Amino acid sequence: MRLPAATVPLLLSWKLLLVSSYLAAAPAAAPKPSRKPEKGCTWQKLSDPAAGLEVFAQRCDFGFRKIDFLFEGNVLLIRYSDGGKPDPVVEVFDLKEGEAIEAGVQRLFTERTSKFLASRCRIVPWAEGKPRAGAKRFTFEPEPAYAVELKKKQDPNEVPPPPCGDWGAAPDGIQYWEAQPASGARKVLFVRVGQDTPLYDERTLRLLPAPAPAPPAR
After folding, report:
1. What percent of the chain has pLDDT over 70?
2. 34 three-class SS
3. 169-174 long-range contacts, CB within 8 A, separation 24+
């Protein structure tokens, strides 16, 4: 059916506005990694629309061992050629409709943590390392009274277990929750950096914006 001439400019304007809004909300993709690759490795950009994530990760050939990364569902995994199951390094989780970022992170943490630890730990901004523009990072640490209890029991010669479980602050490595409000994605990340510089570039993690909605049916 031919549309009236006056309708065409309105439809074009609506589509242009939709595209402009979409682009403005989406953060710019990282043009390159933030550091040089390890010897024997090269950077590759990985992107998975199903997971809703993009990142630079290294593919490595050390002769006796090869290392690469892959997506499975909502998880970015590191894979070693000399056996063993791939290990998760970044996980992508959905926020519920209308759910605030901090409330969503709290819910996701509570769902994966014992009731005891969830009741004794609190969400706080993760402030270690260099801040990343456009990102909000969080972790979970013991509330003050519980921290005092743990300190009394701690053996100074041993590394203690994570005080808030596997989804909170780690005493022997780095891990945190990350949100990217400007991405337009209703998702958050759980990022496992570990003890050493990771073979993926945590500063290039990019949540992909949700697809633009289809125009209303006429």
Report:
1. 83
2. coil
3. 169/139, 169/140, 169/141, 174/128, 174/129
